[in-house]
Amino acid sequence: MKLFHLIATLTMINMIACADLEGGGEFESGDKLLGGVRTNAHPEVGRLDLQFNGQSGLCTGTLIRSNIVLTAAHCVDYLSGPGSFGSIALDGGRFAIAGALSFSNEAGAEDIALLELSDSVPASVARPASIHAGNPTSGASAQIYGYGCNDRTSTNGPLLGQKQTVSFTVGSGSANLCPGDSGGPVFVNGSIAWVNSAYYTSSGADLYAEVGQHHQGLNQVADSLSANGTAAVISQIQTQQGQQGQQGQQGQQSQQSQQSQQGQQGQQPVSDYCEIEGYYGDDYCDTDCARPDPDCDYQENEAPQGDSNQAPQSDNSDDVCAVEGYYADEICDTFCLHPDPDCL
Q1: What is the mean pLDDT of the segment spanning 316-332?
Q2: Chain centroid to CA 89: how far?
Q3: How many angstroms separate the CA atoms of 52 and 236, rounded?
Q4: pTM of the model
């Protein structure tokens, strides 16, 4: 479900940086990000032990409200709705996930989801992180956090479930994500600028969801989700979408109706007096008709010009009025081949 215009356009040559979701499967991985070190910093960053639709998996998430977790949409299979999705393990306890709200349906720049927790996390356990206002500037220092493996080509070894971190410079890119790191935060100046999404198998370059770019909308939805719950927020969104759809349909119908009326008006012929009165083909030349009167047997460039009181010049021997000089003789002759100026 797209809550605001979050549509990713990525080629599908990347690997999801979340451990595979296989029915009833158990995950094995190494213990850290590629090149990372274990850490206890940022207690609001936790391990997502996901279980839904008969599947289980591992991702990373960050508390951004006392009962709302930010992660990657692909971690919950891009689903939205209330229901049991597993739990998040923080340093001070484990908290059940009661609902999910996904913002996209593919990995990459828009791979964002918010998870609702059944219970709020006490401040003594962890305080929510903030979302970075906009994309960070090039050259800034960034810190990636995740619970993923340390070898992209092998997942052998026990799942130690340790939090790791690694730094890189904004603008230079990174190649550190590993399955299990998905949904983890990238902190810049203490706030979340991106969320771990995936990596390209060809180049090894990491892909991040740009949460900072949508910080205002995300904060609004997070507040609503925290106060009202997943079911109510989704219902509200569906209602708004329905209303917008009806308004759009009504507007389209109105526009089509106007276009139809204009088309009909455009198709209506201009009032033709000569057609109505039957003056076409009545053996009398009518020059004021909307269309040329076939009774007027003008030759090319032979139409009357100049003073309307002057008799038309014609060498047409069939025009008795021209032959007899009836044009402009002060007598109206209605039988002439051409209009008689005396009839004006």
Answers
A1: 72
A2: 35
A3: 24
A4: 0.66
